[in-house]
Amino acid sequence: MLESYNITMQPVYWGDISMIDAERRLLANALLDPSNQRFVLLSDSCIPLFNFTTTYRYLVNSKLSYIASIDDERKSGRGRYNPQMSPNITIQDWRKGSQWFEVNRDLALGIVADQNYYNLFKEYCHRPCYNDEHYLPTMVNILYGGLNSNRSITHVDWSIVAPHPRKYAGSEITEELLNSIRFGSTGCLYNDNTTPMCVLFARKFSPGTLNLLLTFAPLLFGTSN
């Protein structure tokens, strides 16, 4: 079924503009099918938290897209800004977020079409600036702020102090953990209303968690909400 969707492969390096190139290639190919209206980027360590029907309804009925975009005043946020990006990108425009996003068709078209901000990042965003954490949050903040919720729908645990988030092991997988992720939020806005259902996916789960996760499939996917 996927034979006609071969996407040109290129080397990708962590934090490099090549990550943005890969994301744009994925979106460009997905946009070729006019029936595709919502686009989700996930990793191989992500899991769904709800069944397909619930996830589908949440996304297709949403007024906004979901790209985490925050004004982080710390060294790991504004501290990565390169003044050479000015005046097109100012320190006030600069945003940080996760690379795991969900966008509607209009925003996906805007991301693929962008050249101005892409070229600025390609030229001036080098370590300790990481393109995957700053390009989309910043570009969308400048051009499409009204289309974005400024939050991610992929849960990640940054409670540990490390370059990468917590990775869940098999011994940690319980019904309590999964429900705390699914409904443990203090609340977020969805179509102008507050809801405890703020994430649809979660990461990072190691391959060793698969069997345990399958035992909880009825909890996650047993009914449509």
Can you describe this structure?
This protein is mainly α. It is built from 8 helices and 7 strands. The protein has helices at 17-31, 52-60, 105-113, 116-124, 131-143, 175-183, 210-215, 217-221; strands at residues 38-40, 47-48, 102-104, 154-155, 188-190, 193-195, 201-202. It has a 3-stranded mixed beta sheet, with no helix packed on it. It has a two-stranded antiparallel ribbon with strand order 1-3. Helix 1 (17-31) packs across helix 3. The longest helix is centred in the N-terminal third of the chain and has 15 residues, at 17-31. The protein is globular, with a radius of gyration of 18 Å.
| Strand count | 7
Structural shape:
globular
Task: Please give the alpha-carbon distance between the first and last residues.
Answer: 29 Å
**Could you name the ranges where pLDDT drops below 50 across 5 or more consecutive residues?**
none
- Main sheet: strands, sense, barrel: 3 strands, mixed
- Helix fraction, binned, reads 25-40%
Multimerization status: single chain
**Strand-residue proportion:** 5-15%
Number of helices: 8
| Main sheet: strand order | 2-7-4
Mean of the pLDDT scores?
92
SSE pattern: HEEHEHHHEHEEEHH
What would you report as the Rg, rounded to the nearest angstrom?
A: 18 Å
Structural class: mainly alpha
